[in-house]
Amino acid sequence: MSSPADVLTLWGHWPAVAAAAVGALVPRGEAKQTRIALAVFAALAAGLVGHLWPGVATGAAPTEWPGLLDLLVVLPIAGAVAVLFLPRQSPKVLRRFTLGVLLVDLVFSLQLLRVPMTRGWHFVSVHEWVPSLGIRWHVAVDGMSLWLVLLTTLITPIAAYASFGSIKTRVKELCFALLLLHGAMIGGFVALDLLVFYVFWELMLVPMYVMIGVWGGPDKIKAAIKFFLYTMTGSVLMLAAMIYMVVQYTKLTGAPSFDLLALQRVLLPREAQALCFWAFAIAFLVKVPMFPLHTWLPDAHVQAPTGGSVILAAIMLKLGTYGYLRFAMGLFPGASGLNTANLAGVAVLGGILYGALVAWKQSDIKRVIAYSSVAHLGFVMLGLFAVTPSSISGSILQMVNHGISTGALFLLVGVLYDRRHTREIAEYGGIAKVMPIYTALWVIVTLASIGVPGTNGFVGEFMVIMGTMVSPRLRAFAGIDATLAAFGVVLGAVYMLGLTQRVFFGPLSNPKNRHLNDVTPRETIALAPLVLLVFAIGLFPALFVDRMKDSVQGFYDHYQYVWGEGRVERANAELLPPSSDPALERGAPPGPGVAAAAGEP
Amino acid sequence: MGILLATSPLLIVALGALLVMLVEAFAPKLQRGELAWATAVTLVGGALASASVWMVGTVGIPGAEALAPYLLTDRFALFFDFTICVGAALAALLAGGYLPEHGIERGEFYVLLLWSTLGAMMLAGAGDLLSLFIGLETLSLGVYAMTAFRRASPRSTEAAMKYFLLGSFAAALLLYGGALLYGATGHTDLAGIGQRIAEGTASPVLLLVATALIVAGLAFKVSAVPFHAWTPDAYEGAPTPATAFMAVVVKSAAFAMMLRVLTVALGAKATSSWGAGWSTVLAPIAVATMTYANLVAGRQSSVKRMLAYSSIAHAGYVLVGVAATVRSSGAEAQAAVLFYLLAYTVSTAGAFGALVLAGSRGAESVSYEDLAGLGRRHPAVALPFALFLFSLAGVPPTAGFFGKFYLFRAAMYAEGSFRWLVVIALLNSVVGAYYYLRVLVFMYMREPAPGAPIAKPMKSAYVTAALVACALLVLALGLAPGASLDLALLAPARG
C-alpha cells in the first residue's frame, strides 16, 4: 500500500528513470555491459542535475560530517600502501582493488553536495600535527574547491579504468602510483595549512614522475625529469617564502602557525611582499603552466601514457590555478593586485594567442591538445588576474570544464593510439567512415573545447571574458584583453576544427586505417560520464555556479579589504584583525583577536 | 654509582667491544655473522642506555658531573650518543651481510667499529681539548683501518692512505689550534676558554689564528669544500659498511665536536660575530660545499661516489644551521642540526644498505648501469632505496624533508643574509633531486643493455633488518617529527 505521497516521491525521480531508459536504449547492438553502464550514467547525470536543482532538497539543514575530507584523502593513500602488500602475480585483484577504492572515494565525495555551500568553510577538520611549530592538519572545502575535489574524484577512476585497458605491464606500480596521486591531489585541494599543502604538492610529483617515466613514450625519461625539476624549482622557492611568512607571523603574535587563515592576516612591507608573492606565483605558474614557463608541458603530455595525460591535464594543472587563487592571491592581495594587469597581458598574449597559434602548427595530435591546454589555461588565468567575482567564478568553472573536455580529448587520442600506435595527424584522414561513434564523441568534445553554446566550454569562457571586460584591476587594458581573449576563442575553433577535419573527414587514404574498430565497451564507459557532464554543465551552468558564488564573493570581499589596507606603505609587517565574518574564520588557529572557540570546528 | 649510570652508554659500548674482541680471539670457529648481531645489539644497548639516561635526567644523577669537563653527560652528548649508536648499529648490520658476501669476513671489523663508535661518543661528550683529541683519534684510527679492510683491492688501500694522511693533517691543525688557544687563554676546557675570550683579555692575534686553524681542522673532518678532496676517494674505496659508518657516525661526531667547540669555546662575540668571527667564514663554506658537491655529484657514473658527494652536500646544508647558531635564535638552529643529523643518519645508512643489497661478490654494484631494471628484478630492494633517496632529496613526508625544513626554518629566523642562504640551499636541493632521481630512472625506467653483466642482488637477513629499521625510522620521523624535534630543543651544547 503506497500512499499518494510515496507515489509523488517516486514521481520526483522520473527524469532519472527516463534517462536510464534512454541510456539503455540508445546504443543498440552494443554489449550488455555498455548498455547497463550507460543507463546508470544517464540516470546518475539526471539525478545529479535534479539533485542540484535549487529548492528541491529542502528540509532540515544536513549536518556536516567532519571526518569526510580526512576520509577522502586518507582512504586512497592507505589504499596505496595496501597495494604494496597485494600479490604482483594477480593483476586482476590489483585493478579491482584500485578501482574499488577510487569508486568508494567518488561515492563519499558526493556527500559534499548535500550541504549548501554557503559563505565560509565546510567540512572543517583540524588535528594537531607538530604543535611546537604551529603545523596542523587543517582541511576544509568551500565553493571554490568543491568542484575541483569532485572533478578529481571523478576523473581519477576514469583515468584508472582507461589505463587498465592499455597498460598491461607492472600493474602493481601503476595501482600504487594512481592511488597515491589521487590522495595527494585531493589533499592539495582541501589543505588549508600551508605546510600540509606543500607536503601534498610535493607528494604528487613522485607518482606522476613514475607514471611518465615508466609507461611513457620513447623520450619518457627526459620528459619525466624535466617535469619533476621544473615543478620542484618553483616549489622550493615557495617553501622559502612560506617559512618567511611564518617567521613574520611568529614575531607578530609570539606563536607560530602555518595556517592560511592565520597567515593571510599578515601584511608584509611592500618589497618583502613582492618577493614572497613572486615565489608563490612562480611555483603555481610553472604548474599551470603559463607562458614562458610552459615548456615542460608538451613534453610531459606527449610522453605520458593516456591515463597520466588525463590526470595531468584534468587535475594537476588545476592545482596550479587553484593554488594561485587560494594562496598567491589569498595571501598577497596587494602584490598580486599590483602585478595583475601585466600578468593578464602575458596570459592573453603568451597563453591564449600564442598557445593557440602553436597548437595550430603541430603535427602530433597530442601536442595540439597539449598546447590547447596552454591556451585554455590562459583563459583561466585571465579570469583570476581580472579579479572580479564573475571572472573568478568563470575561471573556476573553466577549470572544471577544461578538466572534462581535455580529459576526454586525451582519452580519445588514447583510443586512436592504442589502435595505430601513432599520433601523427598525417597518418589519419577519413576516420569517420570506419569509426562513426568515436567520431561523434570526438566532435562533441571538440565543440565543448571550442566553447560552442550549449556545451560547458561556452559558459566558462563567456563568464571570464565578461568579467575581464569590466575589471577595474586591469585598468585601460580590460577592453583589449577581453577582445583579444575573444579572438582566442576563434583561434581555438580554427585549430580544433582543422584537426578534426584532417583526422576524421576527407577520403580514407591510408590503407592501414581501413579496419579500425570502433570504441570498445571499456572506452565507452570511460568517456560517457565526461560527455554527459559536457551537456550537464553546458545546459545548467547555474547549478554549478550557484554553489561557488557565495565563496567567491567572500574571497573577493576579503581581497578588496586587504587591497585597501595594503595601499598604505609599511616599514614593518603588521597584523590585520581577523575577518568579521565568523564563517570565514571557522577552523582558524587561536591567535590575537581570535576567540578560542573559533579554533574548534 | 652515579658515574657508572651517567656514562653507561659509553661503558656498554666499551664492554661490548671487549667481549667481541675476546670472542673473536678465542672462538675463531664461531659463525662470524653472530658477531654482527652481537655488535648491533651492543650498539642498540648503547642507544637505549643514552635514551634512559636522558629520561632520568642528567641533573638527577649524583656524581654525573665528576668527569666534567673531560666527559660531559649533558643532553647534547646523549642525543648524539643515540644518533651515533643507531648509525653504528646500522653499519654493523650492513657489515654482517657485506663482509661474508665479499669474502673479507674477519671479526676485527666489528671490534674496530665498536672502538671507533666509542671514540665518536667521547667526541660528542668531550668538554676539554684533551679528551676531545683523544676521542677524535680513537674514532679516526679505527676508521682508517676499516677503510683499508679490502686488502686485496688497491682502491681500498689508496683510499685508506689518503684518508689517513689528510685525517692526520686535519688532526694536526686542530691540535695546533688547540695549543694556541691554550696559550692565549690558559685553559684547555672549552667553557674556560669561552669565558676568557668573553672577558677580552686574550690576545686577539693568537685567537684569530687559533680560530682559523680550528675551523679548518673541523671543516676537514666534516668534509666541507674546499677541504673535501679526500672524501669521494675514501668513500668509494672503502667497503660499503665502512663508507656508511664514515658517512653517518664520523660525520655526526664531527658535527657534535664542531657545535661544541664553536658555540662553547669560540661562542663569544669576539670570535663568532657576523662580520668578524667564524660564522662569516662558515656561511661561504656552506654555500661552496653544497653547490660544488651537488654539481659534481650529478656528473658521477658511480652510485657510491654519487652518495659520497651527496654526503658532502648534506654537510653543506648542516653548515647553514651551524652558522645560524650565532644568532639569538641559536638554540633552534642547534636543535635543527641535531634533528637533521638523525634524519640524515637513517636515510644515508639505508641508501648504503640498499646499495650493499644490490651487489654481490665480485660485482659490488656501484655504477648506474648495474642498477638498471632493479625495480622489476628486485622490487624489495628498489622500493626502500627509492624511499631513502626521496628522503635525501627532501621530498615530504620523509625524515629528510623535515630535516631540511627545520634547518631552513631556523636559518630563516636568524634573519639577515641567512635568508639568502636558505634560498641558495633550497635551490641546491633541486639540483640534488636531479641526481637522486637518476638512480630511480635506472632502477625503474631503464632495462639493462643486452649482454651487460647484471649484478645479482645478494640475500642477507642482516642487511634486510637494517633496511627495515631505516625505512621505519625515515617514515616515523617524516610523519611525526614533532616529538624528536622537541627533544632536540632540550639539548643545547654546554661547556
Describe the structure.
Chain A is mainly alpha-helical and 601 residues long. Among the domains of chain A are: 12-56; 337-570, no CATH class. Helices cover 69% and strands 3% of the residues of chain A. Chain A has helices at 4-12, 14-25, 32-52, 68-84, 91-109, 143-166, 171-190, 194-203, 205-215, 220-253, 260-263, 270-287, 296-303, 306-331, 333-360, 365-386, 389-420, 436-450, 456-469, 477-504, 521-539, 541-566; strands at 122-130, 135-141, 266-267, 574-575. In chain A, helix 14 (306-331) runs antiparallel to helix 15 (333-360), helix 18 packs antiparallel against helix 20 (477-504) and helix 19 packs antiparallel against helix 20. Chain A is globular. Chain B has 495 residues and is mainly alpha-helical. Chain B has 21 helices and no strands. In chain B, helix 6 runs antiparallel to helix 7 (154-185) and helix 17 (379-393) runs antiparallel to helix 19 (418-445). Chain B is globular. Chain A binds chain B through residues 84, 88, 129-133, 135, 170, 173, 195, 198-199, 202-203, 205-206, 209-210, 213-214, 220-221, 224-225, 228-229, 232-233, 236-237, 239-240, 243-244, 246-247, and chain B through 375-376, 379, 383, 390, 395-397, 401, 405, 408-409, 412-413, 419, 422-423, 426-427, 429-430, 433-434, 437-438, 440-441, 444-446, 481-482, 485-486, 489.
- N-to-C SSE string of chain A, H for helix and E for strand: HHHHHEEHHHHHHEHHHHHHHHHHHE
Q: Estimate percent helicity of chain A.
A: 55-70%
- First-to-last CA distance of chain B: 23 Å
Instruction: List the total number of helices of chain A.
Output: 22
